[in-house]
């Protein structure tokens, strides 16, 4: 093996990121005397918002990484050299700009402006990929010497590409695992799972402000709606979840048409700050949910939010072969019961005493109320700024 081959293997074993892998690979090819001006790798991913990550290295600007959305990628890929190659069943193609090529693509103009003289394109397939969307990567290289790469330089790149692809694939799988855990179980829970907290019954107590939100009237709407209701629900859930993330909280669970989120306390964020963040998120969620209703018109879906504070148990719960990383405890149950009283009390937001006392904004008492299944009555509060006609 050459030093470059050893280096690629080492990077793959170390788990470096793809950007530094491609940059180091490109710089080492240049050091070997290959007139590389541009190198590109497209790595597909399984992500709700990003379809592919484009990594582009140029000798002039270094490395640039761009995430491309599903919608944008579909159109761009079909019009690219790689879309052409897939449609024609080829995995290798070398376009030289000084010849009379029968095909031309917009990327050729960009490469030409950068001084590139050719476009060496390769599709590297991954057999038995974990998902259909991870079937391989696309790679392209351009030289800035008249005539482009010569045959021995192409052979050198082709010899190294399988190693480069394997190292990039290994890095992508790790990134994919992190992204999928973040998306489906949450940032904090995902990190705990990756760190080895995977046994049933493991976990720890957590003190936090809890955010429990639920749409009123959604079940009735589903009974008379078509499949488009899913897109409508996504908008409402986004209206609830985005403010939580913006205020430093974490969505623990989507429950049908509702959200359970937590704002844990820490040295940097004591009870007052956690409760204030939860309250800001709740107010923002109510405003954004109303904006969703205004966009759609017709029947509105009201949002009810309950804020509570206390100690919960945060950990792995479930059956031996199917676990959930979530929170349980009396405080969670009480928050759910509080939310159920919003419509009866006539206010979209109710708070427990610990939250109300921790927040600096004016609040009004709604009196003592019995929560279903809870023996002792609880005093509930809402914002003083809410009128009696909020519901």
Automatic annotation (TrEMBL):
It comes from Microvirga subterranea. One of its GO terms (biological process) is cAMP biosynthetic process. Residues 209-339 form the Guanylate cyclase domain. It comes from the Bacteria. It holds the Pfam family Guanylate_cyc. Gene3D superfamilies: Nucleotide cyclase. Coiled coil: none annotated. GO terms for molecular function: adenylate cyclase activity. This is Adenylate cyclase.
